[in-house]
Amino acid sequence: xxxxxxxxxxxxxxxxxxxxxxxxxKTDEIKVDGMCEKCKKRIENAAYIKGVKHADWNxxxxxxxxxxxxxxxxxxxxxxxxxxxxxxxxxxQATDEDYKKLPHCCAYKDAAGAGN
Length: 116
Prior knowledge:
Helices cover 40% and strands 18% of the residues. By secondary structure, the protein is of the alpha+beta class. It has one domain: Alpha-Beta Plaits, CATH 3.30.70.100. It has a 3-stranded antiparallel β-sheet with strand order 1-3-2. Strand 2 and strand 3 form a beta hairpin. Helix 2 (37-47) packs across helix 3 (75-84). The longest helix has 21 residues, at 2-22. It is elongated and about 40 Å long. The chain starts with a helix and ends in a 17-residue tail after the last helix.
């Protein structure tokens, strides 16, 4: 009987810890400059830093939907990682050096009316 109560107490503790951890899961959208499917792959890969659970960039809307644990990373850290890959993300601008590493088809600054 003691073992049953101990097991129940342990299960209650584990479930309460699990629920409290889920409060740190956030979903945000980030405006990210890019042009094509190559950009999509690069942007999503750059977004997958520690703490990111899901990243999906829409080529048409230029919006990245990201699901992440705010206790492990921040929106700013995700944007910085994407900018380091050569894409403007949110308020973070890619450096000229990082931008110049992009393939020609991904040169969003050179496209008419695109993301400056």
